């Protein structure tokens, strides 16, 4: 379910947008505003994923409002095509011209859903572990290795030096759970979070995690993965 908030200075436009959203499966309008200032006062306290903003409004236009919104996906609506370039400069989900058609609005929500899915992937994933079904925050993972006990399992080393075992999970499937830009496989048995790499050479990497004897953790690099590691680190 995507939760959205509407901002448009015209009440008829709000009613029409609500009607369209009600006709699109998986969309819930949690609140609507016709005043940009009140919208900005309340938006950070509202549980929503997407803001549908009209651009042409008196006092403060939608472009100005969008610059003040954090952690929300934005869909612009407007009858004026001249705002298109400025709208996309703000890295919004979509720009929908009025009069709005249901199919076009649905297309915008599909884009938002894809982006929200990627955002969720960048934050955490869930899997069966030695602790049961566990939510694992990606930013806490330093590196991953094939379990010495069962090669089908993967051991996750976390920033707090604790360890969690993911049950029955291949590196291929694990790569689909993790944000591609942050994790790279370095050999057949190990994968690392590139944010924790301190040194990378032709034969090894050194992480910012220390081993049990207090020495920085060193891991071997396989020849077949060198180019992939270099490419990730150069981004």
TrEMBL record:
One GO molecular-function entry: phosphorelay response regulator activity
Residue ranges crossing the lipid bilayer per the database entry: none
Annotated positions of the 4-aspartylphosphate modification: 54
Keyword Phosphoprotein: yes
Position of the signal peptide: none
Superkingdom field: Bacteria
Keywords tagged on the record: DNA-binding, Phosphoprotein
Pfam families: LytTR, Response_reg
GO biological process: regulation of DNA-templated transcription
Domain Response regulatory: 3-113
GO cellular component, as recorded: cytosol; protein-DNA complex
The protein, known as: Two component transcriptional regulator, LytTR family
Organism: Epilithonimonas zeae
